[in-house]
Amino acid sequence: TLLFLKKLHAIDISVQLPNDQYEILVEKSIQADSESSYIVDLTYLKRSKGVEDTIRTSRYWVTEIEYAKPDHVNHEKRVDILSRPVSIAIPLTSDVSADESQGKLFAYLPVRDGTGLPFIINADFLLASSREEVKVDEEWNQWLRDCVAETYTTAFLRILSSSNLSFAEKVMAYGSIPLESHYPFLKSIVPEIQQ
Question: What per-residue confidence (pLDDT) applies to 20?
């Protein structure tokens, strides 16, 4: 949730059990890299009895590109909107859990887990009332979906040219390249994809 929310930089959860009390903290730090790309470190901490232990730190490369809305794309819930950003987050650390590495879909907040794609997508998608699915037949969503490939390509190329990333982090980025095994999810949102 912290990944794409620009004004939220930490979450602090207090856990009170009968025999134990502790806090779990998730902190976000951002390092700008290039135009519309930045490195995000999410640090997970456990604080118990005044002692703070780092559980893990996950690093992501985030690229956000603003796209002009085509004239033919309109929706009553997006009146007078002329452009929208599409963001991609690519994991750069090997300790990212299996759920995270299989990608998630966000509309600023989480919408869907396990997209099967090895990166995370965020855009202003129109959602079903349950917030669990993107309305795939909406022109608005199809426009944003079509911007994902360009955003991903830009993100990947910027990773390779970044002087702020280690060689190992650049190698980790290759794990984000979509493969044929990712097609089942892609076909569910883009039925015309042929294997």
Answer: 86
